[in-house]
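Q: How would the structure tokens look for this protein?
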Amino acid sequence: MMHSLCFLAVLLLAASAARAQSTETFRSWNQPVEPYRIMGPLYYVGASDIAAFLLATPEGHVLINSGFEETPPLIEASVRKLGFRYEDVKVLLTSHVHFDHAAGHALVREHTGARVMVMEGDDDILAGGGQGDFRFDGEYSFRPCPVDRVLHDGDTVALGGLTLTARRTPGHTKGCTTWTIDLVEGGRTYQAVVICSMSINPGVRLVKNPRYPGIAQDYARTFRTLEGLRGEVFLGAHASLYDAAAKAQRLRAGERPNPFVDPAGYRRAVREARGRFEEQLAREKAEAVATPPAAGRVLADVPSAVDPRGRYVPLADRGSRGSQISIAAKSRIRPGHSGGEHADGGAAKQSGVDRDAGQGYISWSIVTLERAVAQSHGF
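A: Here is the predicted structure in token form.
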């Protein structure tokens, strides 16, 4: 008993440290930076790592991503610093509706009157302020934002002579959207690609994920889609994905050709992300056929940031809720007994039942802790 209490205390402390580290990580992503022109009518107006892009036209502007709830004032300041009117933002798009890319949508819409357009699969999440997302499901809630147009794969958004194409690249979210647009510089036309996200968030399972049964197939489809794009101007929802700060510095120094023209970097990023996906998928498939752990072993759904050596086996019935740390004990019960009490008579919450050679086993969730440490580009 004392050992269990000590174990729980250690994880409580770890969760507290993870929360503090998450806050610091998010703060570092949301620092103000100088805005700049990338190519043609495309400008960077985001924060230090939370990317936001402005497409400026004589008929109004398109804004991709709004960041955290605290990010819109930074975006507004950047738009004005570039000499444009923030109120002229007519269309508001997003890569995906996680709290670090779309939590500011309601505020931008309120201040500019922009029409909000979101891919199917993400529209209800934005309208619900983060509720219903298979990964976070309200853990990082934000102000709900009405959706004016629900997009579908291949839809286009046109304004002032510019046309963006929405490519549904699901997996990170169900409506994850990669945007493409043709830009002209020096007499050449380049395909700019704003990648939604290729990462798999900590705690998200690709095999037997009850909240997203088709997640592995969706990721595979996404990589096929991305591999079919030219990706000449390589951009993404996180500035660090495509080394934005270094490229911007080189651009300001007058480097030519434009350093944002980086198809090799695009192909490398997609290839490496596919490799990580395939590695995790193979590992989970192998785990799925492995022998179940012996009764009495303590199980935990603990992200790698808290449990770097992977000593604890994730609870199968926790699905994708890996942002929580769950400690459970397995106790043997009489075959056919479905009661919710420990062998010693203590009350417990049932979270799953295993059957092994005619013996009944039941898992009880003892404690649930909020959130795991954020990992760079994880959201």
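The chain has two domains: 2-13+292-369, 31-284.

Residues 2-13+292-369 form one domain.

Upvote if useful.
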